[in-house]
């Protein structure tokens, strides 16, 4: 007699259909965001335009992989995941999971680079030229930021065990496991019941929390530096740059809320072996909507994109005066 060891709803059909429909509807904004960054960015943005586009590119990749091509479904607090995306019958699910890890990390790293670039742009606002030493130091900081964002990829890939032996161990250890355990698209992401399970979870938590703290600190530094440089500016200019700072903090909170929180909760439940009914959907919804939240934040943050969007939809809000639209120029001028 076949006895189920599952504690999950493994085939939430309505949830999956609604999730895919929402992803399709939200997908309309992605090509529009690419168009705005490439064609509506002010010339005074300088290289920050390409930093923003790099971030836009990687969050688009994250959206495609998370919502359609790979689409990871977590069986919390099991160490198994299921690849539900369109490519699961084309490529090896372990390879797809590896690609998902890389894309997710690259997306987060692009956010770190974006916030770092804003700090440098503010620091260099009134410099006519940059010395070779300063350029070299900034490049080294960018290298450190990239390493900081990507350092968990090798550990996560190295920890993926042999699937046959690991699935056999999972089915014999007496803990709940999904009924689809032996399906080809189910992947054991690390060795259960060993020190590596907790080690990888702890490293992953440290990575997400440290990235979130770094982005929030970068936003606060930008706030502080810009405030110092605006002391002798007009009241209107100071008000515009206060709005810039508020939007920067908002972007930092979006990253914390949609990325750091769900993945930290996921790995905490793995470490402590806690099953919380419904938490799988919370993790899935927030992690998959992280790129969409980031794209929306681009329109909230950059006035030229926001103004063009309002023009397309035929809305002319009163607070969008010509003075306010120059806020981005003030911050990003060379």
TrEMBL record:
Keyword presence, Ligase: no
Annotated InterPro entries: 7TM_GPCR_serpentine_rcpt_Srh
Domain of life: Eukaryota
Transmembrane feature ranges: 20-38, 50-70, 94-115, 135-160, 205-227, 248-275, 281-302
One Pfam family cited in the UniProt record for this chain: 7TM_GPCR_Srh
Keyword tags: Membrane, Receptor, Transmembrane, Transmembrane helix
Protein name per the record: Serpentine Receptor, class H
Protein's organism: Caenorhabditis elegans
Gene behind this protein: srh-33
């Amino acid at each position: 007699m076949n006895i189920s060891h599952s504690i999950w709803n493994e085939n939430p059909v309505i949830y999956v259909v609604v999730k895919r429909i929402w992803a399709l509807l939200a997908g309309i904004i992605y090509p529009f965001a690419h168009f705005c960054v490439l064609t509506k960015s002010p010339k005074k943005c300088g290289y920050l335009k390409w930093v923003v586009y790099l971030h836009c590119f990687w969050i688009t990749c994250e959206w495609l992989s998370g919502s359609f091509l790979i689409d990871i479904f977590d069986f919390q607090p099991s160490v198994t995941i299921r690849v539900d995306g369109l490519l699961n019958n084309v490529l090896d699910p372990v390879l797809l999971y590896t690609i998902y890890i890389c894309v997710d990390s690259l997306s987060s790293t692009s956010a770190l680079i974006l916030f770092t670039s804003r700090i440098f742009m503010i620091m260099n606002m009134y410099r006519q030229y940059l010395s070779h030493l300063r350029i070299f130091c900034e490049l080294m900081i960018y290298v450190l930021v990239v390493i900081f964002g990507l350092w968990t990829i090798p550990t996560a890939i190295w920890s993926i065990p042999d699937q046959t032996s690991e699935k056999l161990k999972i089915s014999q250890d007496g803990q709940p496991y999904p009924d689809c355990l032996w399906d080809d698209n189910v992947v054991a992401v690390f060795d259960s019941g060993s020190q590596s399970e907790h080690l990888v979870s702890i490293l992953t938590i440290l990575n997400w929390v440290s990235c979130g703290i770094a982005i929030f600190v970068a936003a606060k530094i930008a706030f502080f530096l810009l405030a110092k440089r605006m002391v002798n500016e007009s009241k209107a200019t100071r008000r515009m740059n206060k709005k810039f700072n508020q939007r920067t903090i908002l972007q930092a909170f979006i990253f914390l809320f949609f990325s750091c929180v769900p993945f930290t909760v996921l790995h905490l439940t793995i470490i402590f072996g806690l099953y919380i009914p419904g938490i799988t959907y919370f993790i899935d919804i927030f992690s998959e909507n992280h790129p969409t939240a980031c794209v929306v934040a681009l329109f909230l943050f950059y006035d030229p994109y926001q103004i063009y969007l309002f023009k397309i939809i035929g809305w002319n809000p009163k607070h969008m005066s010509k003075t306010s639209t120059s806020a981005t120029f003030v911050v990003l001028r060379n």
